[in-house]
UniProtKB/TrEMBL annotation:
Alphabetized Pfam families for the sequence: SMC_N (PF02463)
Coiled-coil parts of chain: 156-220
Functional summary from the UniProt entry: May be involved in recombinational repair of damaged DNA.
Classification via Gene3D superfamilies: P-loop containing nucleotide triphosphate hydrolases (3.40.50.300)
Gene, per the UniProt record: recN
Keyword list, A-Z: ATP-binding, Coiled coil, DNA damage, DNA repair, Nucleotide-binding
Keyword Disulfide bond listed: no
Stated name of the protein: DNA repair protein RecN
Keyword DNA repair: yes
NCBIfam families: PRK10869.1 (NF008121), recN (TIGR00634)
UniProt source species: Salinivibrio proteolyticus
Amino acid sequence: MLADMTIQNFAIVKSLELEFSKGMTAITGETGAGKSISIDALGLCLGDRADANMVRPGEKRAEITASFTLEQNSAARRWLQDNELEDGDDCILRRVITKEGRSRAYINGNPVPASQQKALGQLLINVHGQHAHQQLLRPEHQITLLDQYAGHQSLLDKMASRYQRWRRAKNELKALIKKKDDLDAQQQLLEYQVGELNELALGEDEYQQIEEEHKRLSNSGDIAMTSQAVVDLLSDNEDANALNLLNAAQQRLVELAALDSQFEPLATLIEEARIQAQEASQEVTSYLDRLDMDPQRLQYLDARMSTIMSLSRKHHVQPEALYQTHQQLIQELDKLAHNDEAIEQLQADVDAHFAACLDTAEKLSKSRRRYARELNKLITQSMHQLSMEHGTFEIQVENKADTHLSPLGGDAVAFLVSTNPGQPLQPLARVASGGELSRISLAIQVITAQKVETPSLIFDEVDVGISGPTAAIVGKLLRQLGQSTQVMCVTHLPQVAGCGHQQMFVAKQTEKGTTTTRMYPLARDERINELARLLGGSEITERTLANAEDLLVAA
């Protein structure tokens, strides 16, 4: 629940420190005093959008801090743990807005995006605004209220997930069918290109091998001539060759080694050089014996290299990459060849996802109809209590999943009402007057709030359009709700305010041209005076004071 809140330089609030209690807290004050300012400030800590106009004129920044206790709020504790923001059984939300309009948000001292504050705020407190009865006329709000009361969030999550998969598969199928004609033309081009490359039948490393062989055959004359010259220098030249010279040098070193042992390693080195020169001569001679100067082979290689170069230019790749390009085109052609199979498979997937959606939508619809029947009885009874003795309320749930599927399922939900005997049930907007709509809205909010897990509820002037005995019943309903839930109610009705377990007063004062708002709890005598003011206006008499005390006693 909300434990306390500190407001600094927000709107016309200079400084305000508030402590909140369990049960129902009534918040009253003169018109224009700023009874809703604390709720607006709290909204910032709950992730509402910030604006520079919220900063008190003449100040650099506004700062709001709200503290919550989480002993009985397992959902909020789990959220904090999942986001690594937990800090025991308490939670502190803080929001800072500068006069330039910049905003910073904090959870337990950790800077976070405002979106995270908003996600957590939905688990901490539920605000029912003074225009809630207008939202009640919107079909999307009606289905949301029913779903909140039913509490079937797991079904809603499953429905949304299955709907997403179905829509994704459906869009993929639509795109594939739309591209089919283009793919057919592309397939013909690929078949021609692959046919050309199949005819070439280029091996993976063949181009490098061809290039090397072509270079060798093209230069075979020079290779033979130079190789023979090398053999002559090494061994075949009768006048002088390397082997003869090394033999002579080796013999001289052997003679020197006999005179001085230091020449022995040198003689060994020359011997090794002679052996290597002899092996090199033999290898070059062997190469000459194997050297093929086949002109027909060279002609074949010329033609094949020319074809490879031509196809490489055609496909805008290097000759070395032509083999890989061939393989890629084969794979693309294979995919296109199985295009019809892909469409059939995707159609089967779409049908399967749609069937899964229909199954979940039907379960969701059954759950809604079940809880709708429960709500019908409770809201009808509450209407009778709120001076609508002949009123009847009914939630119509119609499953249209076959034609109107959405992430929320396939139900069309409508709130129907009859306020007079013999009057048929009709949509809420057609039947209810402003006052009736306010009472029905309040009944729905109080009843559905009992099923919402958030431990704190705020009602911001939801009793507009209600007076007399009806207001007293509204107060009792809110007080009853406060037995199990922290309820804060901004009200201008003494019958409602008198039902609060405690009451806070909002006052506005102006000094030296500066206006400030303050808010403080009222003791019993102060409550009686405030209730008397609400009852009698500016003129408070003994009679109004007695009536005010009667309100407290009755509560």
